[in-house]
Design goal:
Largest sheet: 2 strands, antiparallel
Shape: globular
Number of helices: 14
CATH architecture of the largest domain: Orthogonal Bundle
Distance between the termini: 27 Å
Number of strands: 6
CATH topology of the largest domain: Cytochrome Bc1 Complex, Chain D, domain 2
Strand order of the largest sheet: 1-2
Strand content: under 5%
Bound molecules: heme C
Number of domains: 2
Helix content: 25-40%
CATH class of the largest domain: Mainly Alpha
Length: 389
């Protein structure tokens, strides 16, 4: 990074930066191969589930098949004779619930809805294109098409709603939750329609069919192990953008680009998603919080090597990626409030950089590199600045 004034700065980390660049160049050669395989569909994130380093992937898959088969057998036994007792929970050898996968969906109208839901979830860019205002697909943050534990899996979510959420202080149905994901993570304000999918529409129904189908056999009182992105404890040294920059250059830039803009193939299809800027999640999304991003990164990144960063590295790099400008918080635009007001109302109680001045730029106004004094008080979506969207 050429920035002369990164802040907050306890350790300028220039030497580390140079070493990191060397490491990145070495890694680039390796990952270029990985990227090619990924684009060809050979490098499969489902098979690359995080935290599986201590087990043989093949053995786990077998144990999962057995767990599901046991569940189905015990369910049949219970149907035939209640004295056989309630069905077993399908739990794999790794201790996590074993979801049903889309290829098991039945050959009927419900199965069609499950398959459509899967298509929306994994290729939101195409299958909900009218409501996506950035470069994201749902599955970019919910790995393995929403099946992977500690990657906020959808089988764990399916049994949790309706639920009260502090974010909007009302009971949320699963439809409300998905509506929120489109609003923030998918930045719907910048989409062709400018809004999340219309309420009660097929996108919600199909996504919910997919989630419900995956969760078959899970207890309703939920909070299943593997739900959400378990956040590692905040390290004693806190979190630091400069240290995070070094972690980023050494472990992340090779796929996500040094400027965080991700990578697309020549046809404009996303290979590696953006982490900040126009095509990333907006300032209202859960991932903009340093703790939440640290939880996601610790368990899921670098892709295929989840669990390999220390807690300190996960927090630092989460801080770094969230210290750059991204699309505006839709609540600020909706309410016509200033960044400072939105900061006080919505961002005060979590660790994040919204409304802070970093590298001389006021974060949240949607204008990268703009000096604070000239920042417009209302802001506007970052995408309006570019010709491409
Ligand atoms: C930029 C990353 C990102 C994208 C893209 C994204 N989400 Fe999420 N999602 C999150 C985060 C962060 C959470 C909150 C997890 C937590 O707090 O532990 C979340 C939570 C959820 C939950 C609730 C999980 C639970 O256990 O309560 C659902 C359901 C969900 N997302 C669905 C979706 C859908 C559907 C899409 C696509 C329309 C989507 N998400 C796109 C980051 C993302
Ligand atoms: C080998 C390539 C690769 C490396 C290295 C890598 N990522 Fe990722 N990352 C991906 C891919 C691919 C996805 C989307 C996963 C999917 O769709 O299955 C992703 C998703 C993400 C997401 C959620 C989606 C988004 O764009 O916001 C974040 C955040 C993220 N990575 C951060 C990091 C960080 C931080 C590092 C370094 C510690 C890192 N990644 C290293 C390939 C990589």
């Amino acid at each position: 990074m050429t920035d002369p004034n990164p802040q907050p700065t306890r350790d300028p980390g220039r030497t580390t930066g140079r070493r990191a660049i060397g490491a990145a160049i070495a890694a680039a050669a390796l990952v270029a191969v990985g990227a090619g395989l990924y684009a060809l569909g050979i490098y499969d994130p489902i098979a690359q589930s995080p935290d599986r380093g201590t087990h043989q992937a093949g053995a786990i898959e077998l144990a999962k098949d057995e767990a599901r088969a046991d569940h189905l057998a015990s369910r049949d036994a219970y149907t035939n004779d209640p004295a056989a007792g309630p069905p077993t929970l399908p739990v794999g050898q790794d201790g996590y619930f074993v979801p049903r996968t889309v290829d098991e969906a039945p050959d009927n109208e419900f199965g069609d809805s499950v398959r459509r839901g899967y298509e929306v979830f994994t290729n939101t860019q195409t299958n909900a294109s009218q409501h996506v205002g950035n470069g994201m697909n749902c599955a970019n943050c919910h790995l393995g098409a929403g099946t992977v534990p500690e990657s906020a899996p959808m089988w764990a979510a399916a049994v949790e709603y309706p639920a009260f959420r502090g974010k909007n202080k009302i009971i949320n149905t699963m439809e409300d939750r998905i509506h929120g994901c489109f609003t923030y993570s998918m930045n719907a304000q910048n989409s062709p329609s400018g809004t999340p999918p219309p309420r009660d529409g097929d996108i919600y129904k199909d996504l919910q069919s997919y989630f419900y189908f995956m969760a078959e056999g899970a207890p309703l009182e939920g909070n299943l192990p593997g739900r959400g992105y378990p956040v590692p404890p905040e390290p004693a040294q806190g979190y630091d953008i400069s240290r995070g920059e070094a972690v980023f250059e050494a472990n992340c830039a090779v796929c996500h680009s040094s400027d965080g803009s991700g990578r697309q193939d020549p046809n404009g299809r996303w290979i590696f998603p953006a982490l900040w800027g126009d095509d990333a999640y907006n300032w209202g999304a859960g991932m903009h919080r340093v703790n939440t991003a640290a939880g996601f990164i610790k368990h899921n990144m670098p892709l295929g090597r989840g669990g390999s960063l220390t807690d300190q590295e996960a927090w630092d790099v989460a801080a770094y990626i969230n210290s750059w400008e991204r699309p505006a918080d839709p609540r600020q635009l909706r309410d016509g409030t200033s960044v400072a007001e939105t900061d006080a109302q919505f961002h005060e109680h979590t660790p994040n950089f919204y409304g802070d001045v970093i590298r001389g730029d006021l974060l949240g106004d949607g204008v990268p590199g703009e000096p604070t004094e000239q920042a417009p008080s209302t802001g506007r979506p970052l995408g309006e600045q570019t010709a491409s969207r």
